[in-house]
Structures are given as C-alpha cells and as structure tokens.
Write a structure and sequence with these properties.
Low-confidence stretches: 206-221, 377-382, 393-423
Strand content: 5-15%
Radius of gyration: 26 Å
Strand order of the largest sheet: 2-3-4-1-7-8
Shape: globular
Number of domains: 2
Helix content: 25-40%
Number of strands: 8
Order of helices and strands: EEEHEEEHEEHHHHHHHHHHH
C-alpha cells in the first residue's frame, strides 16, 4: 500500500502592529484562536509582545482639535478643557505579534508555469495572508473582549512595514521565508499619490459610492470564514447557518461550471433562472453529470440542510457537537465533488468545473486557463454565465464544445432539465 505524503506545513509569522497588547512594555499576551486557510478550519497560537504601551498617546490628538474646532473658528467645547491631549513627541503604541499554526496542505502555494518552474499561486497566498491576519484579529478580539472598545479588524494596511513568514514543510523539514506584505500608508510617497490642493471652489457632495469606483479584490470573510469566526466565539447556531450557506454557494458555483462546460451561455442562464433555482436542483445537476454515489452527496446535503432548518425554523438549541458535525458533513460534500472531478474521464468532460474545484489540476488549454484566471480572484459566488460568450470571442480553438447530455429534441425547459435526472 502506497504511503500517503504528509503535505502539512508549520507556519511561524511575525509582524509589527500599531497597537499595545498590555499596559507595560516587554509584557506579552497570548491566546489560542480559530482561523481558516481557504476552506480548512485550523487553530493558531497568537502572542503579542508590547514594544511601546503608547500611554502618552491617549487623549485627543492636537491635530484633531485643530482640524475641527480651530478650522471652524468656534469656541472651544467646555468638556475639552478637562480632556487629556496627547503628547506628539511620544512614541505610538506598538506590538510585535507572533503567529504559530500548521497548514493542512501547502502543496498548491506554488504552481508550475509553462516551463515547469514553480511560481507563487497568488490565490492561495491570499488565503495564507487571510489566515494570518484573521488569527491576529481573533487574538486582538480575545485580548479586548472584556473592554469597552474591541480592537480590530486588521488588514495589510495596519502593518508597520512588511511582516515575515517562516514556512517549514514537514515532508522536507527545510524552512524558507516569504513576506507578509503591508499596504502603502495613505498619501505616502510609496502610495504614488500626488494629491490635490484645496481650493474654495471645490465641490463636495454628500453621496455614497464605491471607493475609487473599484470593488475589493477579495472578501476577507467568505461564508466559510464566517463559520470559523462564529464557531470560535461559541455561536454554534450562526456557525451552522454559515456552513450551510457556504455549501449552497459551492454547489451553485460547481453546477454553473458544469452547465458552461456543456455550452450554456448567458442567455441560457437568464432564460432558465439558474440563480433562483433551489439548491436541490443544483445537487441533481452535479450528481447527473459527475455520476458516482449520488445518494451519498444527497445525504450529506440533507444533514447540513436539516440542521440549518432546525436551528432557524424550529429554534432547536445548537451545540458544539452539532456545529462540528455540520461543518464536517459540509466539508465531506465538497470533498465528494472534488474526488469525482479527479476522475480523468469526468474532468475531461467538465474542464471548467474541474478547474473550479481543483484549480491547478484541471485539464484546461493554457489559453483558456489564462482567460479564466480572472475568476480565481473573485469570491466563490462569482458569475460565470458569460464564460462561453468570452471564449467564443477570445479563444480561437475552443477546447470544449457543447455536449449532448440530453437526447436531440429533448424539452429543455427548466423544470424538465432538472426533474428526474438520474444518478
């Protein structure tokens, strides 16, 4: 029997944050918290070492006073005479934070390029950064949960310079280092923003809109991430709801990929109302195309769905055991899909679906792979209905074609398409 390789990886990361963990320098605060690496729930040990407690930084910043009261030439509010004003010459609060955890599988942090050389897989490195920053968030929340103001959340822009990550795969026991990147400080030279001079004729409308007209590259918390957060807080019912939502989104994503593999275009998705279809219909699509033990997938989904309905509609008391059982069943359902798409015959007929489930192991032509890389940076519910429209315009030699899964002349009305499909 072939021995399975140990693909786990020890992680030790360190960064500096502008936050004091304790009331005195050289003091530490430590906690074990829950975090996530992609869809995997893991534990992490977080330790804060206070470098500067920043006590002189408490109180109103004089610049804040100048930017409000002085700017408007108004009388000084009476309560500010009794308020503390911080010392601008003092050092800011600052802590060094250590994160220690183990990734269950680090093998897809790097993928081969066209020449076979390993290159960083940006999507999985984003998962690694999210894993570390979320652990820091949870450590900060744990440290301040009993106080009036809970600290966090953290993002790359909150780091003081870049952090450093030590990765040590257990299979080789040869550690190596990568950056935990920080974001440029707002308005700094490194941000390459020239700025704009203030003038009296500048207009300022109180309107709301997306910052800079752009959407965030990634969501820090997917539904799976929310489930981890809720479970770490002991909010078992909320974690169960989040797990069911994550599984439902996953089924929608995979079913959409299957339909695109079979020639569906945006007009087909609109006509059949796939977005509004019940999740059971999408489970039927997955089973019909991926074959295998379909009843097993139905049973896994029914377990998760029933638990969600029990805590939402019946008001059943959720427990830790119930929460963990739901999470494991949801993970097993996703694993079922991945295992079926590892079958070469199934993957060959469903290249996009296999790419969505397995990413680097899918049988895609390089041109198509590059075209679909844009989807990798989207959340799990990204709209794929335009994929075939894009392929027809941008890929000359399509590597997939419409496959006649149903007999010629079959009624393709939505109800018929999903009703009675066999496993």
């Amino acid at each position: 029997m072939k021995e399975e390789r140990d693909l786990s990886c020890e992680v030790w990361a360190c960064a500096v944050i502008p936050w004091a963990a304790t009331r005195e320098g050289d003091r530490i605060f430590s906690a074990v918290v829950g975090t996530h690496f992609g869809d995997s729930v893991i534990q992490a040990e977080v330790t804060f070492l206070t470098l500067n407690d920043g006590r002189a930084y408490t109180g109103i910043n004089p610049h804040s006073y100048e930017g409000t009261v002085v700017t408007h030439e108004e009388p000084r509010p009476s309560w500010t005479h009794e308020a503390d004003f911080m010392d601008l010459s003092a050092g800011p609060p600052e802590s060094r934070v250590y994160i220690k955890t183990v990734l269950p599988d680090w093998s897809d942090l790097y993928v081969p390029d066209s020449l076979g050389d390993p290159v960083a897989n940006e999507v999985r490195f984003d998962d690694l950064y999210d894993c570390i920053l979320h652990a820091v968030n949870e450590g900060m929340r744990t440290a301040t949960v009993a106080t009036e103001h809970v600290a966090g959340p953290m993002c790359h822009a909150d780091l003081v310079g870049d952090g450093l990550i030590r990765l040590n795969p257990r299979i080789s026991n040869e550690p190596f280092y990568v950056r935990l990147p920080s974001a440029p400080t707002l308005g700094s030279v490194s941000a390459e923003q020239d700025g704009q001079e203030i003038s009296e004729d500048m207009e300022f409308d109180m309107t709301q809109g997306a910052a800079n007209g752009a959407l965030a590259k990634r969501r820090l918390f997917s539904w799976m991430g929310r489930s981890t957060l809720r479970a770490a807080r002991g909010e078992w019912a909320e974690a169960i709801v989040a797990d069911e939502a994550a599984l439902e989104g996953y089924f929608h994503h995979i079913a959409t990929g299957i339909l695109v593999d079979h020639g569906w275009k945006e007009s087909d998705f609109t006509r059949h109302g796939i977005d509004q279809a019940p999740v059971r219909s999408k489970v039927n699509v997955i089973i019909h195309h991926l074959k295998g033990n379909g009843q097993q997938l139905r049973d896994l989904h029914d377990f998760v769905w029933s638990a969600r309905n029990a805590v939402v509609h019946r008001g059943d008391r959720a427990t830790r055991t119930m929460c963990y059982d739901v999470h494991n069943k949801a993970a097993d359902a996703m694993s079922w899909v991945q295992e079926r798409l590892r079958d070469r015959g199934v993957a060959r007929r469903h290249p996009l679906a296999s790419w969505l489930a397995l990413y680097d192991g899918a049988p895609l032509h390089e041109d198509v792979r590059q075209l679909l890389h844009s989807f990798a940076n989207r959340p799990a519910d990204a709209d794929l209905s335009k994929a075939n429209d894009l392929w027809d315009r941008e890929v000359q030699d399509r590597t997939t074609s419409s496959i006649a899964c149903w007999k010629p002349g079959a009624d393709l009305r939505f109800e018929t398409l999903y009703a009675g499909v066999s496993g």
